[in-house]
Design brief:
- The structure holds two protein chains of two kinds.
- By secondary structure, chain A is α+β, with helices and mostly antiparallel strands.
- Helix content of chain A is 51%, strand content 13%.
- Chain A has 24 helices and twelve strands.
- In chain A, helix 5 packs antiparallel against helix 14, helix 6 packs across helix 24 and helix 15 (294-311) crosses helix 17.
- Chain A is globular, with a radius of gyration of 28 Å.
- In chain B, strand 11 (371-378), helix 11 and strand 12 (403-410) form a beta-alpha-beta unit.
- Among the domains of chain B are: 213-276, no CATH class; 278-460, 3-Layer(aba) Sandwich (Rossmann fold), CATH 3.40.50.
- In chain B, 35% of the residues are buried.
- In chain B, the strands form three sheets. In chain B, strands 10-9-8-11-12-13 form a six-stranded mixed sheet.
- Chain B starts with 5 loop residues before the first helix and ends in a 7-residue tail after the last helix.
- The model of chain B is unreliable at 1-20, 30-53, 72-80, 110-114, 162-182 and 462-467 (pLDDT under 50).
- Classes of the chains: A alpha+beta, B alpha/beta.
- At the A-B interface, helix 2, strand 3, helix 3, strand 5 and helix 4 of A face helix 3, helix 4, helix 5, strand 2 and strand 3 of B.
C-alpha cells in the first residue's frame, strides 16, 4: 500500500479548499492510499482497517449471504475510514477528473463522520492507532494462551451486536456534574433510601424542602439545604466520601455485564480475557454508527460530489464522463434500494422544501395540489437546514421524518412486491403501493436492527445468567442459538438462559395453496402466526428448551 | 496480426472447425459463449436476472460502485492460510469440546484445457443472535423499493423460479488458486479421509494395476536440459516479474521491461516414467429430469464429487470416471461439466441408467480389469413405481460391481415418507441380502455438508439407512 503521488495530492488539496468554501467541515490532514487487488484481499475482511486485530476467520471465506448485514455492522469495502487523520483508498489508474469526483465524495464522508452526532464517541481518538495497540495486545495474549485467545474473540464476537451503542452515546452527552449535584444525587438516591430507610412521606418532605431552598436562593440553591443536612445527619459527608469510591456505573450492555460480573472471568487465571473482550466490544461500537447512517452518509456524499464537481473549474471537458459515472452511482434502480440515489434525493428534496418554506404550518394546511405545487416563500435556508440534518439525524430518523407523499410522487417511487405466478412458474414483481406510508415502512423494515437483548438480573439463578429478548415481531435465527449461547456459557462460567419468542403455530391459509403463495393483496386467507415465549438453557454445552 | 477481411476470417474459421476434434470444438464453443461455469453452489438470490438485485441498501459500497474496483473473491483468499492448518484448528476445536466450524465448500469449473477443476474453499459462519426475517409477520412479503411508471398492481417484470443452471452465481468465483481436477480432487479425498474420517478401503479388490516404464521428455528442469520449454519458461518469467512488481494485473504486459533470470529458463529432460493403468472405474449416474432441478442436483453432484475424490485418494489417482445422465432414457456424457449442468423436463425411468451401465460394462469387458463402482443420485421418483424393470438390472449389476450406492434426495413435501425408489428397493430385499454390495442413503433437501459426508459413509460403510 502506498500513498498517492504529489500530483494527485495537490488535486485533493484543491478539492478541500472548494469543499470548505461550501461549508463542509473536516480536519486538515488526511491520508490517501493506492490499493491493489492484493491489498483488498487482506483489507476487506478487516473492514479496510489495516491495523485491526488478526483473527483466523478473517483468513477464510465467510459464508456471507445469510444475514450479512445483521451480522456485521462494518462494510467490507469501505473507501473512507473514520479515523484521525481520515484514511481513504483509491484505485491506482483513476483519471484525474474521476479522482476529483471521488475526492469530493470522500470529503463529504469525512465531513459526515466528523460532524454527525451519532459518531461523537469516535471523535476523540485515532481508531487505527488504538487498533494497532489492541492488535499487539491480542497478539501477545495469543503467544501466551494460544488458541484460547481466539476462543475468547470468537465468543465475544458472538454477542458483539448487542453492544449498548445508544447507552454509550447518551453517557457522552451527560454533563459530568459538580460535586454538589453528585452529593445531592447521593443524598436522595442512596442515603435516604438505603442508609436511613426513611418513609415515603419523609422522603417527599425532603424533596419539598429542597425545592423551597432552591426557590429562595436561586444563585446557590444547595448551601442552605446542605447546611440543614449537616445539622441533622452529621455523618452524611463521611458516608458520601466513603461511597464515592465504591460507586460503579452499571454495565451498558451484555458484553460489559459479563466482563464486570462473570464468576469465570473473576478468577485470577482468566483475567487476561477481559481486555480482549473489551477490544471486541470497542471495535463493534466503533462500527455501529456507520451502518446506522448508510443512506444519509452515502446520500450526503453523493449530494456533494455532484454539487461540487459541477462547480469545479478544473474539470472542464469531462462533464459527459462525469455524467456517465454519476448516473451509474446515483440512478434509482427499477427494483431495489440504492442508498446513494435515495439519500441524495432526500437531501435535495429537503433542501427544496425548506427553500420554498414548505415545512410550515401554513403549507401543511394547504389541500389544493396546484397551490401546494406553487407554494414558495423564498426562505433560501435549505442548505443551512440540510447541514442541520447532517448533524442531528441517523437513517431511521431521516427516513421516518422526510419520506412523505410529495417526495414519493415527485420521484415516481413505489414499493415492489414479489409473488408467485403458478401458471407460468415465475416470480412476478409488481407495483405494490405508491403510498408514502407503505414506502416508509418498507424502508424502515430493511434497516439494520439488532435484537434487543438485556440481562434480567432478578432472574439470574445462583451462578446462572438470564438473557431476555424483547420481542419485536421477528424471532431469532434458530440455527445460530446453540453456538452463540455456548460461547456465552464459556465466558460466564455457568448456565445461560435466553428467553425469547417463537412461532407456536401458523394457521393454514384456507385456499389450500400449501403455503407457497404469500398473502395476497385482498387481505383474505392471511396465515396467522401465533407466538409463544420460550426459554433456552445452555448448560454443560447442551441446549434445552422450555415453553413458558 | 494483420486485420483480415470478414470473408477470409470466416473462411479460416470454417477451416479450423474441420481440423478441430469434436472435443476441441466443444471447448471452443464453450469459451466463445462467455458463460460463467461456476455452479450455483450458494444461492445468494442475485443471479443474472435484472430483478435479482440488491434488495438492501447495505449491499452498496464506494469501492465497487464509485470506483468500480473489482473485488476478488475466493481463490486467492484461500491461499492466505493452508487448508491443513485450518482443518487442524477445527479438529482441535472438537478436542476442546466446541463444535466444528469449517465447511469444505467446493467450486467446480471446467478449465480451459477442458479438464474440470475443483477449488476447495473453506467457509464458515459467525453465529450471533440476529433476527430471522424469513418468518414474516402476516400480510408481509418480500418487499423492496422501486421507481418508474405504472399503476399500482401492475406487473413490472418476472423472474423464472429456477434460475437456469450454469448461468452462474456471483458468489465465490475467482481466478487463480485453481488446480487441475485431479490434483485438487486428490487433495479433497485426502482431507475427507483424514479429517472427516471417511474410512480407508480395506480390500481394494483383486485386480492388479499394470505398471510399465516409458521414457519421455516429461520432467521439467530449471536452467539446463535437452529442450527449452518455451511456454513454461515464459510463464516462469511472468511469475518472476509479478513478484518483482513489474507486471500488473490491470495493464498489458510490456515485454521490454521484463526482467529475465537465468533460472527462469525451463527445460525438458529425458526421464523414466511409471505408466499406471487405472484400477477402478466409477460410474456416476444422475437423474436429470425436471424434478431434480435446483437443490437436489446440487446435493447429488456435491456428494458425487466427494465420492470421486475419496476413491481417487484410495486408489492413488488410478481411477477412471464415466458419467451417465438419465430421464426416461439414459445417455453417457463425456465430462463432469455436462454431467453437472444438463437438465431436461422429462419424466423418470431409473432402470434406463442401470441398463446402460450393464451394457457398457459388457461391451467393453470392464469386469476383467477394473474394480467397478456405481453411484446413482435421484430424487426417488420413478415411473416404474414397482421397480419391475429396475430391480433385474440392479441384480445384474450386483454380479460384478464392488459397490452400488444410491443417494435419494427427498423433496420437502415428502421428508417423512419413503420415495418410490426406496420403496421398491426395500421390497426387493436386496438391501438386506446384499448389504455388502448395495447401499442407499436418503437425505433431505436441506442437508448440509456434514450430512453429505455422513451420507458417503453410509454408502460406503454402514448398511444402516438414516434420514
Amino acid at each position: 500500500m502506498e500513498l498517492v503521488d504529489q500530483h494527485t495530492k495537490k488535486i485533493m488539496e484543491g478539492c478541500k479548499e472548494r469543499a470548505r468554501d461550501k461549508g463542509l467541515r473536516f480536519q486538515d490532514e488526511s491520508l490517501e492510499y493506492i490499493v491493489t487487488n492484493r491489498d483488498l484481499i487482506e483489507l476487506s475482511p478487516k473492514a479496510m482497517i489495516p491495523t485491526l486485530y488478526d483473527y483466523w476467520v478473517h483468513d477464510i471465506e465467510v459464508y456471507r449471504e445469510k444475514g450479512r448485514y445483521e451480522l456485521y455492522p462494518s462494510n467490507p469495502y469501505e473507501t473512507v475510514i473514520n479515523t484521525r487523520p481520515a484514511i481513504s483508498f483509491y484505485n491506482d489508474n483513476n483519471p484525474d477528473w474521476l479522482n476529483v469526483m471521488i475526492f469530493y465524495h470522500v470529503l463529504a464522508h469525512v465531513d459526515f463522520f466528523q460532524n454527525n452526532q451519532y459518531f461523537s464517541h469516535t471523535w476523540d481518538y485515532d481508531f487505527t492507532g488504538q487498533a494497532l495497540s489492541d492488535k499487539r495486545l491480542i497478539a501477545n495474549a495469543r503467544s501466551q494462551k494460544g488458541r484460547w485467545a481466539d476462543y475468547v474473540i470468537e465468543f465475544t464476537r458472538g454477542i458483539d451486536n448487542l453492544v449498548g451503542y445508544y447507552n454509550e452515546l447518551s453517557a457522552l452527552d451527560r454533563p459530568a456534574g459538580s460535586k454538589q449535584t453528585r452529593m445531592l444525587d447521593f443524598y436522595f438516591d442512596v442515603f435516604l433510601q438505603s442508609e436511613k430507610k426513611v418513609s415515603v412521606s419523609d422522603y417527599i418532605k425532603e424533596i419539598e424542602r429542597f425545592n423551597e431552598c432552591s426557590n429562595k436562593n436561586k444563585k446557590d440553591p444547595y448551601r442552605s439545604f446542605f447546611a440543614e443536612i449537616k445539622r441533622k445527619h452529621p455523618e452524611f459527608e463521611a458516608v458520601f466520601e466513603k461511597n464515592l469510591g465504591k460507586k460503579k456505573t452499571p454495565a451498558s450492555d451484555v458484553v460489559e455485564y459479563i466482563i464486570q460480573n462473570s464468576p469465570f472471568l473473576k478468577k485470577e487465571e482468566n483475567g487476561w480475557m477481559k481486555p480482549i473482550m473489551e477490544i471486541v466490544r470497542k471495535t463493534s461500537l466503533f462500527f455501529q454508527p456507520q451502518i446506522r447512517t448508510k443512506i444519509m452518509n452515502e446520500g450526503w456524499a453523493s449530494y456533494w460530489h455532484e454539487t461540487l464537481f459541477l462547480e469545479d473549474d478544473r474539470i472542464n471537458g469531462h462533464e459527459v464522463d462525469f455524467a456517465r459515472v454519476n448516473a451509474g452511482v446515483t440512478a434509482m434502480p427499477m427494483v431495489g434500494l440504492n442508498p446513494y440515489a435515495l439519500g441524495m434525493r432526500i437531501f435535495y428534496h429537503i433542501e427544496e422544501m425548506v427553500n420554498k418554506g414548505k415545512y410550515s404550518v401554513a403549507f401543511s394546511r394547504l389541500a389544493d395540489a396546484n397551490m401546494r405545487e406553487k407554494y414558495d416563500t423564498l426562505t433560501g435556508r435549505g442548505r443551512e437546514f440540510i447541514f442541520y440534518v447532517r448533524k442531528h439525524f441517523n437513517d431511521s430518523m431521516f427516513a421516518n421524518t422526510f419520506i412523505e407523499q410529495d417526495f414519493i410522487t415527485k420521484n415516481n417511487l413505489f414499493v415492489t412486491g414479489k409473488r408467485l405466478n403458478k401458471d407460468r412458474m415465475v416470480w412476478e414483481y409488481y407495483i405494490k403501493s405508491r403510498k408514502a406510508g407503505e414506502y416508509k415502512k418498507m424502508l424502515l423494515d430493511s434497516l439494520y436492527h439488532p435484537p434487543f437483548i438485556e440481562i434480567n438480573e432478578s432472574k439470574n439463578e445462583d451462578d446462572g445468567l438470564y438473557l431476555n429478548h424483547h420481542f419485536e415481531g421477528k424471532p431469532l435465527v434458530k440455527e445460530f442459538l446453540t453456538n452463540t449461547m455456548l460461547g456465552i456459557e464459556y465466558l460466564w462460567g455457568g448456565p445461560v438462559q435466553l428467553e425469547t419468542s417463537e412461532v407456536e403455530s401458523v394457521s393454514e391459509p384456507s385456499d389450500g395453496s400449501g403455503g407457497m403463495v404469500h398473502a395476497t393483496d385482498t387481505g383474505k386467507d392471511i396465515p396467522e402466526i401465533k407466538w409463544q415465549r420460550v426459554v433456552y438453557t445452555m448448560q454443560n454445552r447442551k441446549l434445552s428448551k422450555k415453553i413458558l | 496480426m494483420k486485420k483480415k477481411s470478414a470473408g477470409t476470417a470466416k473462411h479460416t474459421d470454417r477451416e479450423n472447425r474441420d481440423l478441430l476434434t469434436k472435443e476441441q470444438t466443444r471447448i471452443m464453443e464453450e469459451r466463445q459463449s462467455g458463460v460463467s461455469h461456476a455452479p450455483p453452489l450458494q444461492q445468494d438470490g442475485a443471479g443474472n436476472s435484472p430483478f435479482a438485485h440488491t434488495h438492501s441498501v447495505y449491499g452498496f459500497n464506494d469501492l465497487k460502485h464509485l470506483q468500480s474496483l473489482a473485488v476478488i473473491k475466493t481463490g486467492l483468499v484461500t491461499e492466505l492460510r493452508p487448508l491443513d492448518e485450518i482443518l487442524e484448528r477445527d479438529n482441535q476445536r472438537e478436542k476442546d469440546g466446541f463444535p466444528r466450524k469449517i465447511n469444505i465448500g467446493r467450486l467446480i469449473k471446467p478449465g480451459k484445457s477442458g479438464k474440470d477443476k475443483i477449488v476447495i474453499v473453506p467457509t464458515t459462519v459467525e453465529e450471533k443472535f440476529i433476527h430471522d426475517s424469513s418468518i414474516h409477520p402476516p400480510n408481509e412479503e418480500d418487499e423492496s423499493g422501486g421507481t418508474g411508471d405504472g399503476e399500482e398492481g401492475e406487473v413490472i417484470g418476472e423472474q423464472p423460479i429456477r434460475v437456469e443452471e450454469g448461468a452462474g452465481s456471483g458468489a465465490g468465483q475467482g481466478e487463480g488458486g485453481a488446480h487441475e481436477m485431479e490434483s485438487s480432487a486428490y487433495e479433497l479425498g485426502r482431507i475427507l479421509t483424514e479429517k472427516f474420517e471417511l474410512p480407508n478401503l480395506k480390500d481394494k479388490g483383486k485386480k492388479r494395476s499394470l505398471t510399465r516404464y516409458t521414457y519421455d521428455l516429461t520432467d521439467k528442469n530449471k536452467s539446463h536440459g535437452q529442450l527449452l520449454d518455451k511456454k513454461a519458461t515464459l510463464k516462469q518469467v511472468i511469475k518472476t516479474n509479478i513478484n518483482l512488481g513489474t507486471v500488473s494485473r490491470h495493464e498489458p504486459v510490456d515485454t521490454e521491461s521484463l526482467v529475465i533470470s537465468p533460472r527462469d529458463r525451463i527445460y525438458r529432460i529425458l526421464s523414466r516414467e511409471k505408466d499406471y493403468e487405472s484400477q477402478a472405474i466409477v460410474f456416476f449416474l444422475r437423474d436429470y429430469s425436471g424434478s431434480m432441478a435446483g437443490k437436489a442436483t446440487e446435493l447429488v453432484v456435491a456428494q458425487h464429487v466427494m465420492i470421486y475424490s475419496w476413491l481417487l485418494y484410495q486408489y492413488a489417482m488410478q481411477v477412471q470416471t464415466r458419467f451417465i445422465l438419465h430421464d426416461t432414457e439414459a445417455k453417457e456424457v463425456s465430462d463432469f461439466y455436462t454431467y453437472y449442468n444438463s437438465k431436461v423436463a422429462g419424466g423418470t425411468q431409473v432402470s434406463a441408467a442401470f441398463k446402460l451401465v450393464n451394457e457398457i460394462v459388457e461391451k467393453e469387458n470392464l469386469t476383467a480389469d477394473y474394480n467397478i463402482y456405481v453411484f446413482h443420485g435421484t430424487d426417488g421418483d420413478d415411473w416404474d413405481s414397482e421397480g419391475e424393470k429396475a430391480i433385474p438390472e440392479i441384480k445384474a449389476m450386483l454380479m460384478y460391481a464392488n459397490r452400488v450406492g444410491i443417494s435419494v434426495v427427498r423433496h420437502p413435501y415428502n421428508y417423512s415418507s419413503p420415495t418410490e425408489v426406496e420403496k421398491y428397493l426395500e421390497k426387493s430385499e436386496l438391501l438386506t441380502e446384499q448389504s455388502d454390495l448395495i447401499r442407499i442413503d436418503s437425505i433431505r433437501e436441506d442437508a448440509d455438508e456434514a450430512r453429505l459426508i455422513q451420507g458417503i459413509k453410509n454408502l460406503i460403510m454402514h448398511a444402516k439407512v438414516t434420514i
